[in-house]
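Our preliminary data section would be incomplete without showing what the modeling component actually yields. Below, a chain of 543 amino acids is followed by its predicted structure, encoded as tokens that our downstream tools consume directly.
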Amino acid sequence: MVRPRSMRTDTATDCDPRLPKIHARGQGCTKRGLSDPTRLPAMSAPTVSSDPKRVSMGVEGLDDVLKGGLPANRLYLVQGTPGVGKTTLALQFLLEGAKRRETGLYITLSETKEELEIVAISHGWDLSRVKLFELAAVEEKLRGETETTFFHPSEVELNKTTQTLVDEVERVKPSRVVFDSLSEMRMLAETPLRYRRQILQLKQFFSGRQITVLLLDDCSSTMSDLQIESIAHGVIVLQHSLPEYGIARRQLSVQKLRGSAFSEGTHDMILRKGGMVVFPRLVAAAHHQDFRRESVPCGIAELDALLGGGLDRGTSNMFMGPPGTGKSTLAMKFVVSAAERGEKSLLYIFDESQGTFMSRGEQLGMAVRDHVRNGLINIQQVDPAEISPGELAHCIRGQVTRHGVRTVVIDSINGYLNAMPKEQYLTLQLHELLAFLSQQGVITIMVLAQQGLVGAMQSTVDLTYLADTVILVRYFEARGAVRQAISVIKKRSGNHERTLREMRVTSAGITVGEPLSGMQGVLTGVPTYVNSSDPVGKLVASL
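Predicted structure:
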């Protein structure tokens, strides 16, 4: 006589089918002549290696985060809310295995083959080399069994589902397996205890079978999964946030990777045609390169005198002032001078188009377009709403390390700030980027537009402490006209001239006059004359 369900206990000796059976053969339920629906094939002893083989993920940048890839033949948990890119990552993982002649198996418990193929087509992938197994095949086997048993349908369904999936793994004998997703198994398990035991049983089954497994979890349940994180050999978390304007920001972090080093923190990532791309967080301390320290002139004698010979290699320099004072033009002059020396420059412009930038250079007598054609000047127009700071830093790093860029211009820092989801992260990421460029011997020029025209100026953010050299450009009124004055406020790497000079931007280019020694109060915008010497008048007459 079968004991009523309400009277059965939850102990292994009572043969409750809701608990996975991890006991030896000939014990428990099988001893009474009952079949054990949760028994898995015999497990071989796990292989332990002090230097485990690494498995490439097939995702650009992710292997760098993982220091070479995931340790092979382990079980990993990939977490993330729907739409963050788990399926894309999993498919790239299996396709990378196919390139290496490894068999891959995608077990989908929540999506159909057609839905997976749609994802693949959107990226231009061919899934013919990947084995796909969907839940519909399991449900067909289970149909009818749940109606003839006196056990609760979910108990049989969970056990039979697990057994069917295991049978498929035994049949295909893959090197890489993806389970998508755990939310289905969690709902079948109903209780945290049964869920944990079922996952633990899967882990023990895969142990020693030379298979690397990814378990995808869409975090759709309120049930805590800390217990599953403790079972998995590693945990990768995908996140995304929605700024008030612009595209969603996606980030990846490795929460855990037993016995293996990895790059900690959050790393920006994007989903685009061709798959996921991860931009590893830039760590300046990991990049050192010897270079010759020297001052690089711009070709304007008076400006080079202000700078004590020019800008120094391996320094960050900030050109700041109100709009229209010539900050971007000054940066353009240094870039053109670098091109004339045969050095490559990279410009990221946020506030104007590439065409406008080159046309302005031609109007000022600078051959910007010619240098762009010969590859010495690379101008990248940036939309702050479409790029993340991690992607920007990654692109700059690639241009410096692979293409030998010697000068980098960010015009403007205001645009870079707008690319940040939160202002407090700007200084940290920018500091790391500037430190990296400094260690590569690159001259970095940052353009910062201040608020106001004359008098007291304000900045949306104070970054002058990050710069080795600060060049200040100001409007001032003299003899009924608005003029521009330039001065070097700070230079860490050497001595500089501490005077103020007038600067003019004309069709002939940039002209810098002699020191305004006969005037005081220039920085206030309304100076006064202190003697009869009038360098402003001399400069105007000479022009």
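The CA atoms of residues 368 and 432 lie 30 Å apart. Confidence is low (pLDDT under 50) at residues 1-50, 146-153, 539-543. Preliminary results of this kind motivate Aim 1 of the renewal.
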